[in-house]
Each structure stands twice: as C-alpha cells, then as structure tokens.
Amino acid sequence: MSQDTAKPLLSVRGLTLDIPLSSGMLHAVRGIDFDLHRGETLCIVGESGSGKSLTSLAIMGLLDKNIRRSAERMDFDGTELTTASRRKMRSLRGDRIAMIFQEPMTSLNPAYTIGDQLIEALQLHRNVSRDTARNRAIDLLEKVGITAAASRLGQYPHQLSGGLRQRVVIAMALMCEPELIIADEPTTALDVTIQAQILRLLVDLTKEMNVAMILITHDLGVVARVADHVGVMYAGELVETGPASDVFGRPLHPYTRGLLHCIPQPGKTERGAELGTIPGIVPSLVGDVQGCAFRTRCPHAVDACRDAIPERGEAPHQFLCVHPDGARAAEGEPA
C-alpha cells in the first residue's frame, strides 16, 4: 500500500481552540485538518501568534485548563486523543509521542544529572534494568553527536552549552523509540552556527528510525530543506497544505506567496536591498471572525472575501481562498 493511501499515524480534523478573555472569546485555532504518515516530516510554518504552538500542545494534551478544545477527530494510531483519559495521555507522552521544546531547560531538571534524567525517561515506560537504560542513554548520546558520552551522564544541565543541552533533549525524546516527535522551534534558542547542525541531526535521526515528525517553525528556509509536507498557518487556520515541492514550487494562497517573496534570493537580491514585507497586521480573532482573515492584507481581495467561507480545495495540495485557482489565477498566471 502506498504512503498516500496507508492509514495515517495521526489524523486531525476540525481542531478548534478557544480562549475565554474578558474582551470576548479568542478563536486561537480555527478548524484545522491534516494527516501525518509514519516516517514523514510535516512542517507547520507561520508567524508568531498564528496558533502553531497551541496546535502542538493540543495534540500532546498539555493545554492550559482554560483553553477549550474541540475536534471532529484527533486520531493517533487508533487512539482518539480528544477522549483519551489523563492516564492514557501520560502513557503516550514520552513513549509513543515525544516533544522537543524551544528552550532545552524546559525539559531538563537542573537538580538531576543528565544520566538520571535519561535513565528515568526509559524506565518510566519500559520494564528494563538501570544498566540497560544507562547503555541505551550512552548509545543515544553518541548518536546525537556528544563525545565522551559515558562521562556526560554525571553532568548537570547547567554544565553543558545550549547546543549540547538540546542534543541531550533530542536523545531523551528518542529514548523510548517514539512513533511521533513534535519539535516546537527546536533551534530558535541556539546560536545560529549551531542551529543547522541540530536541525540536520534531528531530521537524519527521525528518518533513520522511521519516526514521524511535526516541526513547528517560522523559518521557510528550514522548511524548504527538511519538509515532506508543509502547512502554512495564518490567524489560526491552515491556509495552505500540501507536499513541500508543490507548496514551494506552486504556491496558491496569497499569504504563502507573500511569505516566499519575503525570502532573500541568493544571487538575485542586491546587497543592502530592503527585505520584502507583507503590508498590514493580523486581524483580531476575538469575537466573530467572518470571511477570509487575510483579506485586509491581500492584493487580490474582492467583496466575496468579507463574508464567504473560503473552500479548501482538493488534496493533496489544498488552500483556503475564494479564488478557485488561488493567487496564481488572481495574478494572471496559468493555474
């Protein structure tokens, strides 16, 4: 059976996240859909506040209590996450689903050694001896590029650099051989010279171990290098989804095209030239949100954009736009 027709490891339909505020209801995530198969990397890209991180926390069952989650379906390999008990979610987290946060110290306890934390991560979910867990920890530290791995087990998080701490967190995420890793801006807190190394390491290891990954980022350059599929998020919606080659080679939503136009082109962008921007600001998502959220910033907006609910189009390359062929048609390009 092909990857496209095989049952997805994770299938999300109609995920909505609402946050009650004194000024009204904030519709932070608005009815998003996506599928993820084993071994695939889905990159969710969008600016700050678009709902990317909340989406990841919803999958992990780590939302604040005041956030109201609803969905038609959030199926992880036969387990419906929307109705799973707290005990079931605890058994999934760190075992079959692992998460890598932006800041390594979010995941590491400063009071315990690296070795104790790695060993506990495995023994919490597996009936193995401490020696077995220790050997597994050493093996994974070596896999993530940490030299003298055995001696590192006795060190505390504060004794490691930011890059080494993030490598430890990646090793911890892989301890139980998860089927899905969610990485939320995993390199943003690191020096730019280390970011590419860590990202390449993470992608190579997930491919080697056939682990599915959701990588959340705002960096389209990263997405272009590592994604199998891309989801472009704006104002709480996935406005465009599809294979990475399609989204980058034939972007259909005006927002996606705007983002791509903002990327400097090596050899084409003159030194000192101003970077491209998308005019306007993201609209408020408090209260009733009607029509297309991008319409006030879109060069192709028409009257229908104010009220019409954009149609998503057909898989695998989908986009939310009232123009049947998206921005390409609106700009006079062949569909």
Notes on the structure:
Belongs to the ABC transporter superfamily. Its main location: membrane. Residues 10-260 form the ABC transporter domain. GO terms for molecular function: ATP binding; ATP hydrolysis activity. The protein is of the alpha/beta class. It has two domains: 10-96 and 176-266 and 278-327, P-loop containing nucleotide triphosphate hydrolases (Rossmann fold, 3-Layer(aba) Sandwich), CATH 3.40.50.300; 103-175, no CATH class. 30% of the residues lie in helices and 21% in strands. It has eleven helices and twelve strands. It has helices at residues 52-60, 86-92, 114-123, 130-143, 149-152, 162-174, 192-208, 220-226, 244-249, 254-261, 326-330; strands spanning 10-21, 24-36, 41-45, 68-70, 73-76, 79-80, 97-100, 180-184, 212-217, 229-234, 237-243, 318-319. The strands form two sheets. It has a seven-stranded mixed β-sheet with strand order 7-8-9-3-10-11-12, sandwiched between helices. A hairpin with a 2-residue loop joins strand 5 and strand 6 (79-80). The radius of gyration is 21 Å and the shape is globular.
